Amino acid sequence: MPESMPSACRVCGGVEGARHPVGDGDHAWHCDRCGWRVGDAPDADLPTPRVSVVYYLRYAQRVKIGTSATPRARLAAIRHEELLAFEQGGRDLEQQRHRQFAALREGGEWFTLAAPLVDHIESLRTGRDPWATYDRWLGDALRARSS
Ligand SMILES: [Zn+2]
């Protein structure tokens, strides 16, 4: 069961976690949201890891398929009604999706929300908030770098 942690997670700002053994009989808090070991590195001056994603943003019956390494800032600048999903990847994956769904293209990066795009987005959805999934990838990237 997640509990309130003594300090917020420095990766994602999460406030709930669980204590897990970390060897030598010690325990450490692990953020429930992104999996980061709270209270450990990163140093304040360690650069935040970047995880590039392809995003699927819905506005009415259209979906914008784009990519960003800083999705929080990027999505804040795009008018949309709903973030449908994220997929880990950059420009290559974005271009691949644009080709894959070319028949649905309305112009620019906007596509009609219809099959087979609906099915693809459905396959990416995990039942969690896409931002929780993104924060988990950030935590994974940090752990990979610090090990
Ligand atoms: Zn976290």
Number of helices: 4
Indicate the overall shape: elongated
Oligomer: single chain
Segments where pLDDT lies below 50 for 5+ residues?
Answer: none
Helix content: 25-40%
Structural class: alpha+beta
Q: What's the number of extended β-strand segments?
A: 8
Task: Report on the architecture of this protein.
Helix content is 28%, strand content 29%. By secondary structure, the chain is an alpha+beta fold. The protein folds into 2 domains: 3-40, no CATH class; 53-132, no CATH class. Strands 6-4-5-8-7 form a 5-stranded antiparallel sheet. The two termini are 27 Å apart. Bound molecules: zinc ion.
Topology at a glance:
Blueprint: E1 3-4, E2 16-23, E3 26-31, E4 53-59, E5 62-68, H1 71-76, E6 82-88, H2 91-100, E7 105-107, E8 110-112, H3 117-124, H4 130-146
Antiparallel strand pairs: 1-2, 2-3, 4-5, 4-6, 5-8, 7-8
The structure holds zinc ion (ZN).
Short characterization:
With 147 residues, the chain is α+β, with helices and mostly antiparallel strands. Helix content is 28%, strand content 29%.
Main attributes of the structure:
147 residues, three-stranded antiparallel beta sheet, alpha+beta
